[in-house]
Amino acid sequence: MLVGASLLVVTGLWVAGGGLSALSGWAGGLTSLGRLTGLLASDLLLVQVLLMARIPVVERAVGQDRLARMHRLAGFASFTLLVTHIGLITGGYAAGELPRVPGTLWDLTVGYPGMLLAAAGTACLVLVVVTSVRAARRRLRYESWHLLHLYAYLGVGLALPHQLWTGQEFLLSTLATVYWWTLWAAAAGAVLAFRVGLPVARTLRHDLRVTSVVREDHDVVSVYVTGRRLDRLPVVAGQFLTWRFLTGPGWTRAHPYSLSAAPDGRSLRITVKALGDGSAQVAALRPGTRVVVEGPYGRLTERPRTRRRLAFVGAGVGVTPLRALAEGLPYAPGDAVLIQRGTPLFARELDVLARERGLRVLHLPGPRRAPDSWLCSGPADDRTALLGWVPDVAERDVYVCGPEEWTAAVRRTLVAAGLPAAQLHVESFAW
């Protein structure tokens, strides 16, 4: 609602500034539409920043998965509007004459205040958008993608002088000026407060340090962390934090890892699979290594729970938050089942939960039987197999965590089995 309202305000400011009346002429119409697309692009650009500023009330209400999807959608929409803005403004100043467009674009870039900075900012945003396309992300390491994505902040910052010096609607009225300055201040303030200030404050307050690293599998390790007053860290089972281990070069790159054990107020545990440079280095952490964290984040918690009975479905290292939930959530013996795909993790711990809490555990090893399936080989289709294991799955809250395509397959099966959307809680590995 707030995003839609902001776009309506921007459009209203454009109309109040004579945007509609300017559409009567060819050249003036192109220029006016160029201003509108530029305003909408700027608005969505700042919305992107706010969506990923880790604002606690927004994160708790929406969740990081949905915020990331909204951020991506707003990003591509903003970039499309930005390119359209450049084309329309250039066409308008060229009086709609195509042969004049290249020269006009050059004159606008070098002759107007702030335009060279805006061009550099646009180049940064192009870099971010190109590396955010799914095909490009698959070819990049997470560490490289994360570093390149930070150029979005530089792109946003370089666009401000252009709006201040040459943006007619930015200074058209007191209302317009107040609106844009408020939006810029909110975006900058949210980043400084929640991406910098709060993590620094929590890190200093809790003085987190690695105590031990335990190997769970040949490429999976668990890291135990302790600190001061961890009972005051507002984290619950199922949530994740972004972690920076102060080990030397590369410490600035944060990695999101879920808790693999319910927090007890004395220590935290994460379990990491070696999938990239950062995660591969986790196994070499030494006791005493200082830790910087952001968070906690995520809605894969008890908060959205609506039913007494539970089902947990995880693949590989995606079982980590589900193992924490199986330990931390209340349920009666026999009321919770955990389905684990791939190499079993935490076998002994899950055996203890089975004996002491009545958790039913089902291991499904082996490769997927088909690209659109989330199960291993078997005589039944996914829906029939699931209903055979959990006949009342539609009457449970179901928590799912794993790779993005795998969780999408699980979601389709659960919907086909009759599970209402309100009872499905998903977290996927995507960036």
Write the layout of secondary structure elements.
Blueprint: H1 2-16, H2 26-51, H3 56-62, H4 64-93, H5 101-111, H6 115-132, H7 134-139, H8 142-149, H9 151-166, H10 174-206, E1 209-217, E2 220-226, E3 240-245, E4 255-258, E5 267-273, H11 277-281, E6 291-297, E7 310-315, H12 319-328, E8 336-341, H13 347-357, E9 360-364, H14 382-389, E10 397-403, H15 404-416, E11 424-429
Parallel strand pairs: 7-8, 7-10, 8-9, 10-11
Antiparallel strand pairs: 1-2, 2-5, 3-4, 3-6
Helix pairs in contact: 1-2, 2-4, 2-10, 4-5, 4-6, 5-6, 6-9
How would you explain this protein's 3D organization?
By secondary structure, the chain is an alpha/beta fold. It contains 15 helices and 11 strands. The strands form 3 sheets. The protein has a 5-stranded parallel sheet with strand order 9-8-7-10-11, sandwiched between helices. A 3-stranded antiparallel sheet has the order 1-2-5, with no helix packed on it. Helix 2 (26-51) packs antiparallel against helix 4 (64-93). The longest helix is centred in the middle third of the chain and has 33 residues, at 174-206. It is elongated and about 75 Å long.
How do you describe this structure in short?
This protein is α/β, with parallel strands linked by helices and 431 residues long. 50% of the residues lie in helices and 16% in strands.
Q: In what order do the strands lie side by side in the largest sheet?
A: 9-8-7-10-11
Let me know the average pLDDT: 85
Question: Can you summarize the main beta sheet?
Answer: 5 strands, parallel
**How does the helix and strand content classify structurally?**
alpha/beta
Strand-residue proportion: 15-25%
Name the helicity range. Answer: 40-55%
Number of beta-strand segments: 11
By DSSP (H or I, 4+ residues per run), the number of helices equals: 15
- N-to-C span: 25 Å
Outline the low-pLDDT stretches.
Answer: none
